[in-house]
Design brief:
three-stranded antiparallel sheet, Arc Repressor Mutant, subunit A, homodimer, about 50% helix, 2 domains, alpha+beta, 11 strands, DNA-binding
Chain lengths: ~230, ~230
DNA sequence: TCGCCGCTTCAGCCGGTTCCGAAACATGGC
DNA sequence: GCCATGTTTCGGAACCGGCTGAAGCGGCGA
């Protein structure tokens, strides 16, 4: 019952919130990087990261003298996005559908955890279900025979996708209010789109966490998405 | 940018979190009631409620010497539910699909803000879209001609529904991971189901916020839902 | 009009939390 | 083996935020 307060309090600290936002694109960052992002010393960052890990919000992976931190799962990322989207959703003066302050480009395509979100993500999800690539299964989605063939043809690493805690499930898209594809399959498909440069990070080096997550479609990507998935922008 | 931290901090205080949870069923409560629920004095409660109202999380309605407080919108309720559902979603030991601690009955049907959520809510949403009661519209859903006729036949107060900030939109259901119906229409339909006693609150007087939100289907309700909506449990 | 009740404001206290610096530990390169 | 780098632990100080109690305001009923 005290879950709500304890978890929200954990997210509510400015330093921890900055770290969590920095992890939203899905990359794993070291303790030092996170400390710099949050603007605090290494000692303080260490303590905060320990608290986040103990609460199960982030996962830690030690590699040599570095410790890589990443969000613990899709649900965490989705919950963070929901909270970030909240202020927009409280229309003090009954302003209907106020423009998202970070611009339409952010709405178009972005990384949520490490799968595709925004209009592109929702469109992809819709095509996969409607064209029979995936079908409902206990706890999420499973590939159909058709989907299996198409994924193999595209070069999606299905083995990696199956190693994820969940193979394929929905993740609510706050900007579109419809689900997009999450889980291992969502991650692998998104990775493929990025590797093929059908989608590109707009400002991967930006210090602004929101900007770092923005995705855009390349010209060849637009053609390929139409040919492979039937998505037209 | 500091939205995440400020909002989460607001929810993160134990007293405020208790108040917000108490408001989740959608009822409006007075400052005194909320103070008692949170276990703090009237003075402290007043300050906290002021902060929540200024942040746009709750709406206040003065009536005589009472001040009624309620959640400011569907999005707020949905975000709170997402956070409450989080701990379940962090499988420390990779336990797949651990049972929701509050039991299956909570998953079956419940109030989210003041519309129907859980398996029943998702089933209703699916029938309404699939049977052509509602169709996609800018910012949410609109009634079709068919849906209009059916709602009028059932006695749904559409005028009240249209007075809501949004007529009909999706709200993500964390337990089912599919959308259920929110907005004014969602509220009015749910109100109708409760008035007709097709659904009933299981323990409306419980002090446990979660228990107060549980809904169950009466025998006649099961028959009616099948006849009117084609929903079979 | 008076008194009751709900709520708000104000001052002051108290507790918790976060931060930094110093030191210790661990790792990897030379 | 030694040093540089990354990270954690410890102690102490400062800050912030919430709570209580008393007083003030406004509505309601007698």
């Amino acid at each position: 019952m005290p879950n709500l307060a304890s978890i929200a309090a954990l997210i509510g600290d400015p330093s921890r919130a900055a770290m969590l936002q920095a992890l939203l694109p899905g990359e794993a960052l070291t303790a030092g990087e996170l400390a710099r992002i949050a603007g605090i010393g290494a000692a303080a960052a260490s303590a905060q990261l320990k608290a986040l890990a103990e609460a199960g919000l982030i996962a830690v992976h030690a590699q040599g003298r570095h410790r890589y931190h990443r969000l613990a799962g899709d649900e965490i990322a989705a919950a963070l996005e929901t909270l970030i989207a909240l202020p927009q959703a409280s229309p003090r003066k009954a302003s209907p559908r106020k423009a998202w302050p970070h611009g339409e480009a952010f709405r178009q395509g972005r990384l949520c955890w490490h799968h595709l979100a925004g209009r592109l993500g929702v469109a992809l999800h819709e095509r996969l279900t409607r064209d029979g690539w995936i079908e409902a299964a206990p706890g999420g989605w499973a590939l159909t025979g058709h989907g299996l063939a198409r994924c193999n043809a595209l070069g999606v690493d299905l083995a990696a996708a199956r190693r994820a805690p969940r193979f394929a499930c929905d993740c609510m898209d706050w900007s579109e209010r419809r689900p997009h594809l999450a889980g291992g399959l969502g991650r692998e498909v998104t990775g493929l789109l990025l590797r093929r440069r059908w989608l590109t990070r707009i400002e991967p080096s930006s210090t602004d966490t929101l900007q770092r997550r923005r995705l855009t479609c390349t010209p060849e990507g637009a053609r390929a998405l139409r040919a492979e998935f039937g998505i037209s922008l």
